[in-house]
Structure formats: structure tokens, C-alpha cells
Amino acid sequence: MKFKVTQDPFLKGISKVSGVIPSRTPLTFLYNVHAVLEGNKLTLTGSDGDVFLITNVTVEGQEDGSVLVPARPLQELLRELPEAEIEVETTEDQHLLISTEKGRFNIPGEDPSRYPPAPEDKPPQKISFSPEELKSILDQTVFAVSHDELRPALTGLLLQFKTNEMRAVSTDGHRLVKLVKQRQSDETSAADDVEVIVPLKTLNLLQKNLEEVKSVDIFLATNRVVFDMDDMVITSKVVEGKFPSYDAVIPKDVPNKLLVDVGPLIASVKRVSIFANQINRLVVFKVTSDKIGISAEDPDSGRKAQEEIEATFEGDDLEIGYNANYLLEALRHVPDESIIVNLGTSTSAGLIRPNETKEGEELLMLLMPIRLQ
Amino acid sequence: MPHILHIDMDAFFAQVEMLRDPKLLGKPVCVGGIPGQDRSVVTAASYEARKYGIHAGMALMQAKRLCPNAIFVRSRGGVYMEISRRVVGILEEICDQVEPSSIDESYLDIGNVLNYWGGAEKIGQRIKERILQELNLTCSVGIAPTRTLAKMATNLQKPDGLTILTTEDIPEKIHPLPVEKVPGIGKSTKKTLNDMGVKTIGQLVNASEEFLFKRLGMHGKHLREIVSGKLDWEVTPEEGRPADKSIGNSRTFKKDTSDPEELKGYLLSLVQMVARRMRATKMAGKVVTITIRYGDFNTVTHQRSSNRQTQDETEISRIAWQLFGEQYITGMPVRLLGVSVSRLTKIDEGQMDIFDRESQLFSAVDELKDRFGEGIIQRSASLGVRVRNPKRMPNFAKPKRNEQKRSTS
After folding, report:
1. Is the predicted ipTM greater than 0.90, yes or no?
2. Where does Mg(2+) bind (chain B) (predicted)?
């Protein structure tokens, strides 16, 4: 393999691929990037065994070939090189030689045939997105995805595609986010009534890479999901298992209605929660017709805090406790300056919605309280 | 009177993996890692794999050589730990004297509850039934007058066995067995005994005390008393439950090391494992303990409290590293390092769960999944999995029955 390339596009490609490479793994060959040169197309692949990220870099090819080299030293070197043309070639004993005007760098590699092959064909179900749309979906939902390996089905984001809408649902058992977006049926292309649970790592990888791309096509199969974005393809395993029937746990017709500004609420909860119990992060909300009393207390240290903020509440006075971290995370992901919260009792789920919904979009966050003593 | 019950989960990790992935059913499955990728050993082998001579503790590559078709999966400690906890929970509902001796074994002193449940056999059956119904796992149970005999009874009939040994059964069922069947007799003791002409347990029981003492010291004398049922340890429910009292990991190195960088690396990786387990079990702790075993087996432990309940990896690392810095005798080769966190409390005390509260609204499938039978309903029907040995996993063959029962309850 032999090619010429300028530093910048090469670094960009290697950096994208590095995003999927695990920092610690017993499978040491996964520390490598797999590079294949065909003509002027250099294809770079990185993987953690479950997710593959493949990206192409245009180079001035001189001799086709492939190599498997550790990604980290390569990335670190490229980062330090000036933006100029570099020459890259492999030796017979699988070393990667990088030559610049004044320097020569040698990275020992491995036999490329050791690398696991990425699944190649694209599954049949295709859905197209604008990157902004997908990014906003992820921004509003990913935070509630579970990390709990004992509930595997919750460790990913459920994406459901129906004829005229798509739904994204995440939950960790303590909170749940449901986002429904209207979609023109021709937008969903070939996919109707399909669903997939996308694992957290893949979601994070997407969030990192969506900024720079112009289009996203999602291809769905029963065990695999492929995100095709410009010159980059992410192929991921899906989370197996059945996502719980989330609609059944969302209370219907909760009459009590609280209207509150998000900014002041976040600021107040942040201050008060400094005084909350370190473990359950309990902050108590005393809701009355025109205000919310926010308080916290840590019996271990004797610290206490209390604040009031303005709000409008239709319903009987109510005292309810939440984990401050869960509440703050939900509030930070509401795309509006004020929210409507439907509260039932002090032991039932609170439903948070933006005060003004975007057209064609319905966002609901459900938060379970902490039982008060 | 047989009143000590020993229970051993059949090929525990392998069984759990089969629950998660029905494609593994009836196949030779080795849990521990992927040969050629992981440099570790088999931590559990399914009974199908054992037919090829594969056993726990064997190097992965060797297992692969013995059975090239074996399916290798990585182990998931937190998951097994949680199921182990549930097994102990079931045992504790049947008898209050439960001593978990490892992740997949427990000893019970059922003396006090014999009459309540209607005898030893009924208790054994009940335990097996409940574990099968609630966790979809099979286990083997042995009931005998002492711990050692109970464990040997378990080993007489595996998997899915229930064996009761009375004092009268011992000459017939235990004495003809070779001495290495006694838990605690390893290769070298076996060789010494065999060299002395003691090949069977019967011969061991009948050997003269003096003779055994001369060749094996107190160990020899004790062995004879143990297999004769004269020496035993009590079942101590408080002991052996490190999972509840503390969460810890230790590691013996392949080669003793005194390299500070290497030791720091090991210590931090241990902290990572501990913190991961704490997160998985939703525990926070206050006291961090480190164990240093030097090359000469001299072992020291030191502990320090955090000023708050924590499960934070950085905080645990900080304390562990501080302790290590203060206690480690620089330059001494270290054989083993251990880190544990104790004074544990459950983290989300009072935090309500969406799905617990509404569990009645969920289909049986969801509930099964929650208990771990991930995809259990889909499996036999839609995936066309054949249960080669239905006796091993009876519930797989009839998930429908389970489904009905759950939804009506």
C-alpha cells in the first residue's frame, strides 16, 4: 500500500474511526485501525466488536493494499504534523511508514486478515433523515437511556417507524422520554411499522459525528442497524430483547397542571441540591397555586436549604420529592423556556411537556418521584 | 440425621448465558472468554462441553482444542452476581440458616425447618422447584449429616439431581468412591494417599489414625474425621456473604511485581471492577479496604473511610491509591492486590420505578425478561430452537405455561 495525502483529511478520518475504538479491551487487535487502499480511495475502519465505523478519505493512490495499525500513535502523530503533504506506505513486514518533508515515522502493524470483517450489505428497510432532525431527536432522548446491564432492553433508544410518524423512546426505569414526530410517508421510504433499539454507544457515536454531515440514511434489519452519512457508515448491533410497553405506564388524564419557567427552576434546583442527601439526591417540591417551595436536607451533615420560585398550579397543594439529578437532566433537555408539568399524587409519575410544542412534534418526559418519609 | 443441605447451580454461568441466548441451548458452551482474543480460562462449561473433557479453570485455547465446535462467550460478572443473590433470596425464604459459599453454591442447616416443610426430601424438591420456576435455572442438591458429605451427595447426581445420604447409606454410596472425590483432596494429597495404598474413601475411613498422621500430619487425621462425619463446620449464615457486606475484587499476578507503575495499573483496574459492580447492584459504600499480599505470602490489609457514601470510581481510586502509597513497602514484590468497599447501602432508597409500580400492566414476556429470560417467549417458537436435552431446561419447552401462569397471577 502506498499513497500521498495531506495531513488534515487523513487526521479527520483517523479521528472519526478512533471514536469507536475502545480504550480498554482484551481484544487488542481492536486498538487498530484497518486501512484499505483501492485506487484513490482509502477506507478506514474502526470497531469495538459490536459497532463498526467506516469512513473514506480521498488520497493520491500509488499502490493498492491494506494494513492494520494501532490508531492512537497514528492519530497523535497526525495531530502534531503541519498541514502539508505526507507519504504513507507499508513494508512487507506490516509496518506503516509515514514520511514528511523532514521526518520519517514507523509504526509496526499487524496482519490485516486478523481484523473482523464489517457486515457489508445494507439491510432493506431504509429511512432518510436530515442530520439536524436526527440530532435533535437524540439530544432530547439519549440522556434517559439506561446503563443497567440487568435490564438489557433499556440500554438503548427505541426507534419506532409507523406510516406517518416516528417515535423515539428511552427509559432507565426512573424516567422516560417519549418523542413523537410526524413524518411524511414518502420520507420513511421503504420502512413502515418497523422498530429497533439502538445501543447507547452507537447513539453517542452518532451525536459526535452528526455535526458535520449533510444526509443520514438509516437501514434497519432485525439484528443490525446501519447509519449511512456522507462518506461515513456506522454499522451497529441492535439491543436484543423487547422494549417494555411504555404507553401503558404513562398516566392518562392527569388534571393537575403546573406551569413554570425552566431557567429559574434549574437555577434553584441546582442551588438547593447542593444540600441534598448525597445518595438519593432528594429535593422536595411543595407546590401551591402560585409558587413552588424547593427544599433539601442532608441529615448526615445537618445541612439544609430552602427556596421559593414563582409558578402557576391548578390543583390541590402537593408535596413531591425528586432526585435532583434526574430532574435537572430532564429540564436541560426541554426545548422550550417554560414547561407544563402534570402531577398526580406524591407517589405517581410526573409528566413534563414543553409549554409550546414544536409543530409536528410531541415531547413527553416522565419522572418517577422519590417516596417521602 | 441428614440436616445439612448443599446446593450447587448446574454449570451456573453457562446456564445463565443459555437463558439469554437460546441458540446456545444444548451446545457445548464455555464461559470465560474468546480463545485467541482473551488470555484467560474457562470459568464455566456447559454439560455438553464437559463431555469433551472441558472443565472450569482450563485455558481457553486448550478447551478450543478439545472441542473446536464449542461456543465461547465472555462472562458477565454483575449479571451472575445478581442471579446468585436471587437464588440466596429463595433459599432464605425456605430456611433461615443459609451460608452462601460461592457465587453458585450454598450450605443450609435445615435441622430447624425439617418438620415445618415435611422432611429433607420435600425441602430439596421445593428449592429445586422454586429456582426452576422463578429463575428458569436447574440446580443439584445434596442432603447429608455433614457439609462435606452433603457436597459429595450433590456431586453424586448432576445435573438437576437431588440426593439424600443418611448415615446408613455412606458405606454403600460413599466408601467405594476414589479419595479424590472428597472436597479438599487435591492432586498431591491424592498421590500421597494412593502411594500409601489408600485409594478409596472406604480405605481412608478404615486407615489407622497414626498411619495417616505420620504421612499427612494433622491434615490426614482431619481428613479421616471429615469423611467419617465426625468433624464438620457449622453453617454460619453471617459468613461468606461478601456480596452483601462488601464488594471487592482481588487479583493474583502471573509474576510477582514491585514495579510501582504496574501495581498502580492493577490497583486502578481493580477499583474499576469494584465500582462497576457497585453500579450494577446500585450500592454505595463508605469504607475502602486494600489487601497487599507480598511474594512471601505475608498479607496486610488497610482501610479508610470516605467522608460520604460513594460509588464514585475517582473517589474510591483516590482512597485506595492513598492507602497503597502509605502501606506498601517499596521494592517488595507483590503477589496479590485486592480492593473492596464496605458499609454498603442501597442507593436509590425510595426512588420509585416506573415498571415495578405498573408491573401488572406488563405482559408476561416483559416480566420474564426482567427476571432474565431475555427473549424466552420468542425462542422455542420463532427461532426454531430444538431442546436437545429437555430434562436440563424443562421450562424452555413450555414457556406458554409460564406465560399463562404469570398473567393470571
Report:
1. no
2. 8, 104
